[in-house]
Amino acid sequence: MEERVCVTGAGGFIASWVVKGVHDNQNFYCVSPLQRLHRKHDRLNKFENASENLKLFEADLLDYDSLRAAIEGCTGVLHVASPVPSSSIQNPEIELLDPAVTGTLNVLKACCEAKVKRVVYVSSISAIVMNPMWPKKRVKDETCWLDKEYCITTKNWYGLSKREAESGAVKLVNENGLDKVSICPALVFGPFLQPTVNASSLVLVKLIEGTYMRLVDDGNDSMPNKLRNIVDVRDVAAAVFLGYENPEAEERYICTAHAIKTCDLVVKLRSLYPNYSYPQNVVQMLHLELNLCDSLHGL
């Protein structure tokens, strides 16, 4: 008997690759946010044998009944849908927190009622790493949780939304005995299946344009040369399947592949696309670092 798997947020960057992977292996149901259905889902119907293997539902994360109807009869649920801001947030509660937290709890409640076998929830490394109280000599792993008060103070609403949604999910599954695995990916890059630029890929676009800091905090182009953890979207989709198919998988897993400093990322982008602006201060910072290294080598 073929399993039927529900994938939420099927029009999004990560979820579209998850849908493709499910489609390549088995029959599935796919749930997507109602307001994005017509704009993003035409290409899903172009998959081979889509008419037999794919069924799209109009569903809203805040509409429990629509989610319940879509999840009914599914063996598993791959919950990927969650709001990701591509610009500054004006109303965090409405734009991020409520859809992320209430939406996730609605999905999990529907899973409990439908008696699905397993849920894989795509959280974020943001729900892990932002914790200034974590011991400096201790590696941040899956036991680390974002510090809520720190995120409120720094207005990191996305990180807070992922932390609140995942911690709420842990409480619900513990109370109801639901089998859930969380995947926490780093900054996700990779090829598109969707027709629009998603928020994480917009980071690359803004780096090329030299306007990244105006994207994140309405400031200038000043940018620290911080270390960034990144992962390919296809690897995230593969991690979701591993979380679903491996019976020994449990709790949460960090999904990351590379660590790169901002300067090095800009250098890589410039080597591929040289005719763009780029953040000038990052370029200058890189020159200073290279000159310093040359001086040290000469000692």
Features:
299 residues, alpha/beta, Rossmann fold, three-stranded mixed beta sheet, 13 helices, disordered C terminus, Epimerase_deHydtase, NADP, NAD(P)_dehydrat-like, NAD-dependent epimerase/dehydratase domain-containing protein
Give your account of this protein's structure.
This protein is of the alpha/beta class and 299 residues long. The chain has one domain (5-191, 229-258): NAD(P)-binding Rossmann-like Domain (Rossmann fold, 3-Layer(aba) Sandwich), CATH 3.40.50.720. The protein has 13 helices and ten strands. A seven-stranded parallel beta sheet has the order 3-2-1-4-5-6-9, sandwiched between helices. Helix 1 (13-25) links the parallel strand 1 (5-8) and strand 2. Helix 1 (13-25) crosses helix 11 (233-245). It is globular. The model is unreliable at 32-39, 217-221 and 287-299 (pLDDT under 50). This is NAD-dependent epimerase/dehydratase domain-containing protein.
**Roughly how many Å is the radius of gyration?**
20 Å
Q: In order across it, which strands form the biggest sheet?
A: 3-2-1-4-5-6-9
Number of separate domains? 1
Number of helices: 13
Poorly predicted tracts of residues:
32-39, 217-221, 287-299
**Architecture (CATH level 2) name:** 3-Layer(aba) Sandwich
| Largest sheet, strands/sense/barrel | 7 strands, parallel
Order of helices and strands: EHEHHEHEHEHHHEEHHEHEEHH
CATH superfamily membership, which one?
A: NAD(P)-binding Rossmann-like Domain
What is the CATH first-level class name? Answer: Alpha Beta
Q: What is the beta-strand fraction? A: 15-25%
The N- to C-terminal Cα distance equals: 70 Å
State mean pLDDT (0 to 100 scale).
81
Task: Give the fraction of residues assigned to helices.
Answer: 40-55%
| Shape label | globular
How many beta strands in the DSSP annotation? 10
Helix and strand content put the structural class at: alpha/beta
| Oligomeric organization of the protein chains | single chain
